[in-house]
Amino acid sequence: MFVVSLERVADVTGEPILALEDLHRSFTVRQKIGRVRRRTKVVHAVDGITASIQPGEAVGYIGANGAGKSTTIKMLTGILVPTSGRVRTCGYDPVPQRRQLAREIGVVFGQRSQLWWDLPLRDSFRILGAIHRLPTAEAKARTEQLVDRLALADLLDTPVRQLSLGERMRGEVAAALVHRPRLLVLDEPTIGLDMISKERLRHFLVAERAEFGTTLLLTTHDMGDIERLCDRVLVIDRGRLVFDGTLPSLAERVALQRVLVVDLPEPSPDLQVDAASHIGSDLDGQRQRLAFSPKETTAARVLAEVSAVTEVVDLTLEEPAIEDIVRTLYGVG
Amino acid sequence: MAELSAIEAYRILVGSRVRSQLAYRTSFWLNVVTSICVGMVEFLEIYAIFSNVPVFGGLDLRQAALVFALASAGFALAEVVFGQLDTMPTYLRLGRLEVMLVRPMPLMLQLITSDFQLRRLGQLAVSLVIIIAVLPGLHLDYTPATVYLLVITPLTGAAIYAAFFAAAGGLQFFLIDGAEFTSSFVYGGSYAGQLPGSVLIMPVRVLFTFVFPATMTAYVPALLIMGLPGPKFLPAWLGWFAPLFAAWAWLLAWMAWRTGVRRFTGAGG
Question: Which sign does the torsion angle of CA A101, A103, A105, A111 carry?
Fold first, then answer.
């Protein structure tokens, strides 16, 4: 425990936990053009990113598919070498010092499991404790704590392959935190989860960060993750950083609006309500789209206003799409 | 609190794999029986040859059986530990390697402990039975040297075949779904090792001795054990140097593996 507190002292000295300097990564792609001829094309997946993250920050890293998020994550976790530029994570050069770094970071890949598929969840925690060379008593205590907070107790004896996605994801997050990393990297942690699972996971991450000061870096397609978890946002587009700032300052530049989609019993004229603005109609007005800002009003209020005018057969609520945010950033900038 | 020792860490890893295999007893024993059958069918191939000719590559049935069984024992041992590297393409495709790279343990150790195949011990059992069955008929002189060679040969053999698995694993990083190519290399090497080396045509004999030392896994040390001279390019005394050949095989494997991992991390070949 003494070692941990020393690290925390080092945190205060101001060295960033993550520093990217003019980071580039390109890939050579061979394309077939004709029978024998090949054309080589260089794709710049990450094209000059500079950013730094201080210990204890919670940063959302967003961008469209293929914008370069995963490539950046791979470079800062030691999976991929940068083509040029510099990256330092927890004071380490990630690829050459991969194993030292691995003891300081936890990584959750939403699409790739780090758990042992055919073993009970309990065994995965035990094996990970061993891989991180944690003293048995410490590993046990930490596992118990995580099991308790992520409500995994009833699942411990279930083989991982039988867990639902939400259950497995809680297991993944616990697995990434067994060794108390200073930096937790989450790559699409809530993808495919239902609302309750998402909320449970977010709640846990907020508490974990508050207690241990764990630095969070997460990529996501879900603005809800960003709003609940992050105090800073990095937006990447085609390998370049197009925004780096707080969530409120992002909200100033882009309308982080929700869209309420209502289905009406019959074709109707465009709805006019005070709390939201009408942004479109389909099926001759049988389906209407209303945008509102969650800071000014709530979905319930918009719905109440609509219900006062007409019957609502069905409704869905859309979160702002990352792609739209990026597009708007370009429009403004 | 003291850090967990590396040995303790591996014990927990391997222990969990063993337990998981023993958890489904029926399935485990079915696999063992399959592995025993594979071992017996392979031996039948050798047996079939001798039902047509009395001597094959300068060896009679008993002598050839000893070569086969020593090689097969070494291969089975190697397969228990390193056979897992066969599934590298699956690991690559599913992105499991990325997950392993963010853990503080060498990639190779994680891979080999990720699926420890106990069932392959069935083949080892077949080999040991054959060795025990043919030894009395060979009328060997049980000097310390003979005993040493009988014990060390399956172990050096295992080391050499393990190097083949590791080298093939390294090559997987360069091939897309290259399992068939590398399997033919690994299993071809194992087949070459089970045959009397003298039946291999000259270039193949040299290739499988001085580049990929398959004949060193059984044939050449067996010549020493049985007091026979070797064919051209394969004098029996080379058998004493089998551990050196194993070291050479591992050097090759290490280079192939390292190059493969460097390619994967984009650090250049």
Answer: positive
